[in-house]
Design goal:
Elements: H1 11-20, H2 24-28, H3 36-51, H4 59-68
Protein name: HMG box domain-containing protein
InterPro entries: HMG_box_dom_sf
Length: about 100
């Protein structure tokens, strides 16, 4: 008796279905406005890199420090949010389990 054919979805068939869908939904969507931080970084990044040649890797760290006290920062002067503590470990203590002899 011959085997019954089964419908099996594969990665290629899913990609083909996605490719046939119209991409008009994405074309109508306007770009989001840059945030105040994005505008600040764009303005000050080139200046900082020009003033500190060879230290481009440190630029973002310095941008963050500059942003903290910048007048453009809407959160300037506010206290930072507290970080959540990590949940306690599942192991209650580091003592080995006791054996009942």
């Amino acid at each position: 008796m011959p085997k019954a054919t089964t419908t099996k979805s594969t990665k290629k068939s899913k990609q083909a279905v996605k490719a046939t869908k119209p991409a008009a939904d994405n074309a109508e969507k306007p770009k989001r406005e840059p945030s105040a931080y994005n505008v600040f970084c764009k303005k000050h990044m080139k200046e900082w890199i020009a003033a500190h040649p060879g230290r481009a890797r440190e630029a973002m760290a310095h941008m963050a420090l500059m942003w903290k006290d910048a007048p453009e920062n809407p959160n300037r002067g506010k206290t930072a949010k507290t970080k959540r503590s990590k949940p306690a470990s599942r192991i209650a203590s580091s003592d080995p389990p006791s054996s009942d002899d």
